[in-house]
């Protein structure tokens, strides 16, 4: 699951669990994340910022395939397992939408592996810091025999400018370490330990909070950067003008 803490204008979203928890994205975790983001949105003020952390050695290992398999086993149907996986793909759209429309800057501190939908979760933030000590970024779909959801592809195209970097990530299923992830434009900065990655993310949050930007304006400008992705998610533009003219 996850928790949400508020320290002044800083919201801290933490994926929780023991050291072996992979934070796999099943319907329960997806719902928990969306509830936390809705709470942060409802309390947002000018200068609010959100940071996402994860306990243990994983940031997130993607969709919970074991959950889908369990649904299939319970019904005695392979198709039921496939349908449940497709349901999770559809549910996760809401998480990406929530991050795109959140009225505040967002920072992910990746202190563990981020794979498949877990990498998309990290990339849904405005900024990403990453530890070099124990983390890789990995789009595993090619290795497991699954096509990419359309909104995954749109987000990757929107966030990673280099065609060769995109090819390496999705057509070679490369396990990308922190320094290479910086070069590819997947993350903003790399650090030698998880603690340093979190500290850097916190410093960035402090810098962004001092700007005291209007959250609605920030969210609309963010959305405007990713028109293809917003179109697939059904997000519409909304004009915001200065209150004092």
TrEMBL record:
Natural source organism: Olea europaea subsp. europaea
Pfam annotation, one family: ECH_1
Key words, A-Z: Isomerase, Lipid metabolism
GO BP term, example: fatty acid beta-oxidation
Taxonomy, superkingdom: Eukaryota
Family: Belongs to the enoyl-CoA hydratase/isomerase family.
GO cellular component: peroxisome
GO molecular function, one term: delta(3)-delta(2)-enoyl-CoA isomerase activity
First-level EC class: isomerase
PANTHER family named in the record: ENOYL-COA HYDRATASE-RELATED (PTHR11941), ENOYL-COA HYDRATASE_ISOMERASE FAMILY PROTEIN (PTHR11941:SF75)
EC number(s) per entry: 5.3.3.8
Identification of the protein by name: Delta(3)-Delta(2)-enoyl-CoA isomerase
Known pathway: Lipid metabolism; fatty acid beta-oxidation
Keyword Metal-binding: no
């Amino acid at each position: 699951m996850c928790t949400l803490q508020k320290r002044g204008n800083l919201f801290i979203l933490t994926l929780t669990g023991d050291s072996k928890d992979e934070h796999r994205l099943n319907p329960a975790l997806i719902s928990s994340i969306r509830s936390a983001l809705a709470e942060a949105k409802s309390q947002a003020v000018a200068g609010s910022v959100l940071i996402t952390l994860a306990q243990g050695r994983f940031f997130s290992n993607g969709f919970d395939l074991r959950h889908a398999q369990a649904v299939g086993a319970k019904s005695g149907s392979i198709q039921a397992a496939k349908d449940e996986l497709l349901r999770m793909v559809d549910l996760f759209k809401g998480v990406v939408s929530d991050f795109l429309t959140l009225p505040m800057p967002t920072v992910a501190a990746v202190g563990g592996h981020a794979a498949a939908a877990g990498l998309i979760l990290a990339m849904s933030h405005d900024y990403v810091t990453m530890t070099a000590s124990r983390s890789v970024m990995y789009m595993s779909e090619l290795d497991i025999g699954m096509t990419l959801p359309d909104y995954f592809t749109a987000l990757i195209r929107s966030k990673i400018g280099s065609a060769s970097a995109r090819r390496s990530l999705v057509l070679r299923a490369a396990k990308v370490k922190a320094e290479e992830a910086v070069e590819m434009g997947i993350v903003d900065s790399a650090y030698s330990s998880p603690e340093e990655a979190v500290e850097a993310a916190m410093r960035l949050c402090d810098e962004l909070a001092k700007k005291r930007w209007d959250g609605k304006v920030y969210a609309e400008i963010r959305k405007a950067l990713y028109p293809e992705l917003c179109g697939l998610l059904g997000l519409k533009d909304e004009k915001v003008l200065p209150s004092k003219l």
